[in-house]
Amino acid sequence: MIAFAVLCGCFCLTIADECKPPNGNSGDKDSVVVIVQKWETRTSNFHTSAPVMLSSNAYTVHKSDTVNRVGEANMRFYGQQLCAAVTLVTERVKDDGTSTTSTSCNSQCISIGGRTTLKQYDGSGGRIQSSDPVCCFWARDVELRIYIPPPPTTPPPTYSCIQCTGCGDKDVEARTVDCPPGDKCYTLKLQREASAAATVIKGCSHMLRYWGYRLDCDYGCKTDVKLDKDYGRRYHSVCASCCYGEKCNQKSGALKGAGPRGPGTCSDLVAMVTLTYAISRWCI
């Protein structure tokens, strides 16, 4: 068995050089980083152990017109897809101790962010000599797990937004808050009656949904609106808008359909909207 392993090591290298990857899709990327892990799984007397990682390496594979030897695989990067090939050696040991081996080319193409598994060795043998316990069977699998990590992503920006209720009312203090990454700054205008002043509310966009049913940054302006799906209270006009940028909601601007410009008071706001506990704290 040891002699075969030594012989196979030399033999596989020669065959692997002749095992070529398939053609892949072309692209404009100059290179790609590929992670190659070698795993082994052993079976003894029909009990299979957990896979064991034998090695893990990272390689930079450049776009090329030729096949390159990368670790224990032949690879070629086409600018979009990476194609890899390894020689699969299959060994079967017979009851009389003799063995037969065969080889085949195992190949696959993957794109950036993709992964594949290419088996290198598939061996088994032995014979049942007793049934209590079962003896004596063995098997061994070796595979390469190939993975191309996706490129690092840029985290979403973080902004500070003006947060206030009854914005513009001298009795209500506006403050600046740091919003979660990716949040926008929102401005919400509520008008209960056609002749009433609009109440202006501002803050981070993830809080907008707490002010009313289906409120979001794409809400725009609507009339005759029921904000709470569980109650029948309706409002003459509701306008919601969002913006990206540092304190970009500092100036309310004129929203079409917002009604007369002018802030309400915090007590007016509580009467208009059923607030969550977190929101109602602003009015204490």
Structural account:
Keywords: Signal. Residues 1-16 form the signal peptide. Mean pLDDT is 80; it is low at 1-16 and 254-284. It is built from three helices and 15 strands. It has two domains: 13-148, no CATH class; 159-243, CD59. The chain is 10% helix and 46% strand. The strands form two sheets. Strands 1, 2, 3, 4, 5, 6, 7, 8 and 9 form a nine-stranded mixed β-sheet that branches. It has a six-stranded antiparallel β-sheet with strand order 11-10-13-12-15-14, covered by helices on one side.
Low-confidence stretches: 1-16, 254-284
- How many helices? The count is 3
Number of discrete domains: 2
Main β-sheet description: 9 strands, mixed
* Structural class category: mainly beta
- Mean pLDDT figure: 80
Rounded to the nearest angstrom, the radius of gyration is 34 Å
Would you list the SSEs in sequence order as H and E?
A: HEEEEEEEEEEEEEEEHH
Number of DSSP E strands:
15
Overall geometry comes to elongated
Tell me the strand percentage band.
Answer: over 45%
N- and C-termini, Cα separation: 81 Å
Helix content: under 10%
Chain-wise SSE layout:
Layout (H helix, E strand, L loop, with lengths): L1 H17 L12 E14 L2 E2 L3 E11 L5 E3 L2 E5 L3 E13 L5 E13 L3 E17 L2 E14 L12 E6 L9 E4 L6 E7 L7 E6 L15 E6 L9 E9 L22 H7 L4 H4 L4
Parallel strand pairs: 6-8
Antiparallel strand pairs: 1-2, 1-3, 1-9, 4-5, 5-6, 6-7, 8-9, 10-11, 10-13, 12-13, 12-15, 14-15
